[in-house]
Design goal:
By secondary structure, the protein is an alpha/beta fold. The protein has a single domain, classed as NAD(P)-binding Rossmann-like Domain (Rossmann fold). The protein is about 45% helix and about 15% strand. It has eight helices and seven strands. It has a seven-stranded parallel sheet with strand order 3-2-1-4-5-6-7, sandwiched between helices. Strand 5, helix 5 and strand 6 form a beta-alpha-beta unit. The protein is globular.
Length: about 260
């Protein structure tokens, strides 16, 4: 299927590894020009060797000065902006709310929620000049059903949905579509670390926690980063031109996170 994304100009945050890299590569395969940022200089160095067509810059989305430098650099490379993918996020702490250090709460909210605001506010003036403008924000099923012992992450991801729906209304008249993606259990090292932390907190084995997580899904398998990328590309294309303000789950029908 030709999605008509050849020549599209795209920014993906946290795009040097994991889900973000899969998204960036998927856009590139469609002929889009892609710029990513990442907080990890080692990952950016690997990206420069493995994917020279993708331009990468160092940036901490929670640091507004860093974001301002990145956006200047990114728009200088791209010339215009058609799509922003707000992918950057961290897992945050695992623990009972009374045991979570305030600094850990603050950092999780700063990256997962405020980071999206920091990027979006500087991207919108460019997006509104695009003939096919979209913003896709990464939320989580933790932003729809809650997640015990992961309250900072869940609170941030609920906030992403509110941010998304508000921007969809705010920017719709200017032709900018805004949607959120809500992954469930995603294959990869980050998901494994989350389940391992939960297992340690509850004094259970990884296998027990993994089995319990899948017991709340209809499809007993991990979501792949490629499936997330596929949905994002559709939303960014003209085929998704009337989809906005949606919180779209890619989760195997997850009823609960535990």
């Amino acid at each position: 299927m030709d999605l008509g994304l050849n020549g599209h100009r795209v920014i993906v945050t946290a795009g040097a590894a994991g889900i973000g890299l899969e998204i960036a590569r998927a856009f590139g395969a469609e002929g889009a020009r892609v710029v990513v940022c990442d907080v990890d200089p080692a990952a950016l160095a690997v990206l420069a060797d493995s994917d020279p067509a993708i331009t990468g810059f160092i940036c901490d989305v929670a640091d507004r000065a860093s974001v301002a430098r990145f956006m200047d650099d990114a728009l200088g490379v791209l010339g215009r902006l058609d799509c922003l993918v707000n992918n950057a996020g961290i897992a945050g702490p695992t623990g009972a709310v009374q045991d979570i250090a305030p600094e850990e709460w603050d950092r999780c909210i700063a990256v997962c929620l405020t980071g999206q605001f920091n990027i979006a506010r500087l991207a919108v003036p460019a997006l509104i000049n695009s003939a096919n403008a979209s913003m896709i924000n990464l939320s989580s099923m933790a932003g729809r059903v809650g997640f015990a012992l992961r309250s900072p992450y869940s609170a941030a991801k609920w906030g992403v949905i509110g941010f998304t729906k508000s921007l969809a209304i705010e920017l719709g008249g200017q032709g900018v579509r805004v949607n959120a993606i809500l992954p469930g259990l995603v294959a990869g090292a980050r998901q494994r670390r989350v389940l391992e932390a939960k297992a340690q907190q509850l004094g259970k084995s990884f296998a027990q926690i993994e089995a319990r997580a899948f017991s709340y899904t209809s499809l007993k398998e991990y979501v792949t980063p490629q499936q997330i990328a596929d949905q994002i590309l559709f939303l960014a294309s003209h085929r998704g031109r009337t989809i906005s303000g949606q919180a779209i789950s890619i989760c195997g029908d997850t009823g609960m996170l535990a």
